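EI: anyone free to look at a 187-residue chain?
SC: sure, send it
EI:
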Amino acid sequence: MLRDELGWEIEPQNIALTNGSQSAFFYLFNLFAGRRADGTTRKVLFPLTPEYIGYADAGLEEDLFVATRPNIELLPEGQFKYHVDFEHLQVTEETGMICVSRPTNPTGNVITDEELIKLDALANQHGVPLVIDNAYGVPFPGIIFSDARPLWNPNIVLCMSLSKLGLPGSRCGIIIANEKSSPPSAT
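SC: here you go
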């Protein structure tokens, strides 16, 4: 479906199944961040906060996460939208991956296509993956109410969940990634 509908160059080796999307993030956070074999540490960079609280338990190391405050756009009727503050976003030698939810849990904020493309370029420039938590996003289950195009390329690790498709007992997370960066399937 993803290859035919979206034109993504993916094969079976680009897909890993996990015991739910929460397990997928445990694998990814500890694959790309934390203490390395040479003694250095890498961090998960969240370009927006607030972010999904469930990530807090997904690391093996303390002090695994860093985040950047967003730019907040005030909208009519007490509404707001927050955006990546690219001016203050710092990708350093300690950055092991950039991670964003699309939409963000708990606020439902949907990062724009332009912001996602800029984050992908920034991740590529620094040689780290852009990990997108797509549990509610596009192309499925599509539980968002703003314009958003699905994005994947070999530097993006895209995570999806079957539970949001009405199958919560299935405990099936889906990771779409470059074969070299895809963690081994847990099923």
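EI: The helical segments are 2-6, 21-32, 113-126.
SC: 👍
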